[in-house]
Write a structure and sequence with these properties.
By secondary structure, the protein is an alpha+beta fold. The chain has helices at residues 16-26, 32-46, 50-53, 62-68, 73-86, 166-174, 178-182, and strands spanning 48-49, 70-71, 91-99, 107-117, 121-125, 137-139, 142-144, 155-156. A hairpin with a 3-residue loop joins strand 4 (107-117) and strand 5. The radius of gyration is 16 Å and the shape is globular.
Amino acid sequence: MHAFLAASRYIDFDHPEVQARARSLAAGADSEHALVQRCFEFVRDDIRHSVDFRLNPVTCRASDALQHRTGYCYAKSHLLAALLRANGIPAGLCYQRLSVGDHGAPYCLHGLNAVFLSDHGWYRLDARGNKPGVDARFSPPVEALAFSIHEPAERDLPEIWAEPLAVVTEVLERYARYDEVLAHLPDVVLLDRAVC
C-alpha cells in the first residue's frame, strides 16, 4: 500500500495548498466514508472540468488543479488521490477507454480513481464533474461512475495505478490550451479481442 500513500510529482500532496485543503476537508469528518465523500465531492463539484467550462490553463499536477480550480478528468483524479493520500487513505488511478463521440473511433482514456476503504476494499469513484447525462456519486458498495462501457472497443481497464500513465502526462504537459488537449486526447492500444 505504500505506493498508494506516497506523494509524487503529479500527486503532490506535500504542496502546502494541497495539505491545507486536505486538512480543511478532514475537519469534522466523523468517519472514513465521510472524509472520502467530502474529498470526492470537493473535486467533483468545485474543480471545473476543462472542457465543460472551456478553461485554461491545462493542469496536470494536483496542486495546479487546486490552484487554478480546473482540470481534465486526469488532473482531477490526481487531485483527489492527493487529498485522500494526505489524509492517510490509500488512493490510486484508474482508466476507462471510451469513444470520444457517441460510438466508434476515435477513442480516448478517461481518468478516475480507486480508494481503499477499510470496510470494503478497493472502490472506484469518478470526480470528473456532473452535467446532464453524467451523475457520478460516492455510494459504496455500488459504483456510480460518470460513464459506462457500451461497445467492444471501449473498456474498463482493470489496473489500479499508483502513478498516472505517461501517455496521459505527456499530453497534459505538451499542450497549454484545453482545446489542444481535446484534439490530442491520450489513448492506448488494446491487444485482446482483436482491438488495435
